[in-house]
Amino acid sequence: MILINQQIPRFTERQALTKSRIEQVLLRNEVSRIEPTCRVTGLDQKGLLIASHIKPWRESNNEERLDGSNGLLLSPHIDKLFDKHLISFTLKGELICENEAARKALKAWGIDQEIINRYQENKRRMCNNIDDHSKNKANQSII
Predict the structure, then answer these.
(1) Mean pLDDT, to the nearest integer, of 13-36?
(2) Domain ranges of the chain
(3) According to the model, what pLDDT value does residue 9 have?
(4) What is the Cα Rg of the chain in Å?
(5) Contact at 8 Å (CB) between 113 and 93?
(6) With contact defined as beta carbons under 8 Å apart, do 38 and 73 qualify?
């Protein structure tokens, strides 16, 4: 009987678990508005991605915990590396991986750091081109 009582969360624990799950869904939705795919694997199936905090949840205030700009959508295996600080990203979005175990894992998963960095560069150039296009379009008068 004691074993059963230890496995069933008390009411306040259930409330906390429910609240954290709701917050996780809210964060995932906010993050996906900014970056809808895993920046490493390219996976775009939101239900399979983890919304990972950039600034850890425990160090964030209530606003930061749900702020989409404080998160990344990552495939679960990539999230594990990110969460353990075995990988990170430059401000340009390029993958940083200086840990040998993480490099081996990425290689075993068929993830090439140079391909990821090229993808990020192409994405950045596309955004710059769209920005330039919209500025030029805004300066033209519509007849």
Answers:
(1) 72
(2) 2-139
(3) 61
(4) 20
(5) no
(6) yes
Task: Note whether 39 and 50 are within 8 A (CB).
Answer: no
- DSSP code string of the chain: -HHHHHHSPPHHHHHHHHHHHHHHHHHHHHHHHH--S-TTT----GGG-EEEESS-GGGS-HHHHT-GGGEEEE-HHHHHHHHTTS-EE-TT--EE---HHHHHHHHHTT--HHHHHHHHHHHHHHHHHHHHHHHHHHHSPP-
Which residue in this structure is represented by tokens 């930061």?
64
Amino acid at 94: E
Structure tokens at 65: 């915990």
Give the tens place of pLDDT for each residue, 47-103.
899 998 888 877 878 887 778 888 889 999 999 999 999 999 888 788 888 889 998
Which amino acid is present at 10? R
For residue 82, what are its two tokens? 């990110």
